[in-house]
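In the current project phase, the collection of sequences with tokenised folds has grown. One resulting record follows, to show the layout:
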Amino acid sequence: MSVTSALFTGVTGLIQNGEAMNVIGNNISNVNTVGFKGARTLFSDMLSQNVGGGSQIGKGVQMQVVQNMFSQGSTQTSENVTDLSIQGNSFFALAPPTATFPIGTQNSAFLSRAGAFQVDNNLTLVNPDGYQVLDTQGNPIKFVNSGTAPTTDFGKIISVDNSGLITYLATDGITQNYYNTSGAVGVPATVANAATVQRLALVTASDPTALTKMGGSLYQASTDAGVPTTAFSLASNKANGVSEKILSNSLEQSNVDMASEFVKMIITQRAYSANSKTITTTDQMTQEVLQLIR
């Protein structure tokens, strides 16, 4: 094994610690992003070279995985009733307005922990990028205002309970109705109706670290994420109100801890400097070899 091999070993350390700094920088840049989940870099050693006598010399370091961390973020209260957060491990289900509805399977929906929603001019509940929030039938949550039925026409959402039950105020300013199904008139807010109407859908992933980031605080299911491949239903996609709750008037903040990220930054910087020292020292050793011919 030549002295110059140490140069390439040091280079692997520079490259991988540089990538780790990118991950840290991305975490810090998203410290105020609603629903953002930070990531960490895990390293592993590269294949070692046998040098005889049962001994091996390592060839450097490689990035094993950039792992998303799905710990619960803190919640911030809001004046907007359609600002929602999830207490639990589930995700909101969304779809672009160009999608074909209903969404066929749960793993076909986009997933998100960012619950900054509002009702747009089409009376559809959407996120800031226009992605439509899905109900427990896989349809967009869409209200109706015919202009002729003041007791059922949609006025404004007044509550979303911890199971995703949506109550809205009719245009008469008095009558309260439950959201029922997409694009249909609501039903009176009674105990009997509460048991049968559709709700805001939540989707689970048995291994959320395997979800694919799509940007815009959205995730997409992968084969390893364990997102159900079955259709949406009230039974399987309703928050149970115990281990999984929807909290209205609140937003989940980023789970990035600034102090921890700065400590990681210092450690990564030191590791980068140490690997650069490996290269410069090996270069000096090579110079010593070259001087032997004088």
Remarks:
- The CA atoms of residues 71 and 255 lie 7 Å apart.
- The helical segments are 5-29, 191-194, 234-237, 258-290.
- The chain has four helices and 20 strands.
- The chain has a mean pLDDT of 94.
